[in-house]
Amino acid sequence: MKRKNNKFNKRPQNPLNKLSLFQKSDSRFSKKCPLSGKDAPIIDYKNIKLLKRYVSDTDKIMPSRITSVSQNKQRKLTSEIKKAKILGLM
Amino acid sequence: MNFYEHTIIAKQDLSTPELNNIEKKYKDIITKTDGKVVKVEKWGLLSFAKKIKAYNKGFYIHYKFEAENKTLEEINKNSIIDNSLLRHLTVRYKKLDTETEYFKESNEKKK
Predict the structure, then answer these.
(1) Which of A77, A85, B3, B103 is deepest in the core (most CB within 10 A)?
(2) Where does residue A51 rank: exposed (0-12), middle (13-18), buried (19+ CB within 10 A)?
(3) Helix axes B69-81, B16-32, angle to 10 degrees
(4) What is the pLDDT of residue A72?
(5) Looking at chain B, which residue has its C-alpha nearest residue A85?
(6) ipTM computed for the complex
(7) Residues B62 and B9: beta-carbon distance below 8 Å
(8) Is there a contact between A88 and B9 if contact means CB atoms under 8 Å apart?
């Protein structure tokens, strides 16, 4: 168990301590998915306020590596956004 | 029997008695083919994000009903032929959510 937790307990390194420029930093932060959890908002094609947050200025669907939505919810999001676009709501 | 949601977009330049006729027409189709209408919502006149067939706005009518495959075919047939409609969409649900109405507030503000 101790080994698993070790990864997250590492302190962020000072960038000047690196040996080379191309070395990856150890301090990677991970966000939780905003659409899963206990009181998460409902993903639906009528709920346009929520869907508009996950669309760029030119009406493209944002990738999950930027919004940190989980893979399961991202699949749901894309299908609901496409339904809203058919009805001319977005 | 499954739960479905069906929304239709009618053209902007229709009069109110014509709109009521359209709403009644699809209600009758559902009830004639052994379906049950749970709820009908009128979202009113909304503006599109993009132009659809040279129209900027349209009347939205939203149905929530319980039916079998037979009624879906009838609805699809009629809404494709219908000249007063611009678009339509049917979605299947395991549970219907009749409480939350996403388009209610925007209607009241306009009035």
Answers:
(1) A77
(2) buried
(3) 150
(4) 92
(5) B49
(6) 0.83
(7) no
(8) yes
Report the phi/psi class of residue A84: left, alpha or beta, with left for phi > 0 and alpha for psi in -120 to 50: alpha
Q: What is the 3-state secondary structure (H, E, C) of B17-80?
A: HHHHHHHHHHHHHHHHCCCEEEEEEEEEEEEEEEEECCEEEEEEEEEEEEECHHHHHHHHHHHH
Phi/psi region, residue B43 (left: phi>0; alpha: psi -120 to 50; beta: rest), is alpha
Q: Hey, which residues does B67 pair with through a beta bridge?
A: B2
Give the residues of chain B that fall short of pLDDT 70.
105-111
The C-alpha torsion from A59 through A65 and A68 to A73, rounded to 10°, is 70
Report whether B96 contacts B64 (CB < 8 A).
yes
User: For A44, which residue in chain B has the nearest alpha carbon?
Assistant: B102
Tell me the two tokens of residue B54: 């040279």
Is A78 a residue whose pLDDT tops 60? Answer: yes
Q: Is the dihedral of CA B72, B78, B80, B84 positive or negative?
A: negative
Q: What is d(CA A79, CA B71) in angstroms, rounded to the nearest whole number?
A: 24
- Strands annotated E in A10-87: none
Q: Distance (Å) from the C-alpha of residue A84 to the closest C-alpha of chain B?
A: 10
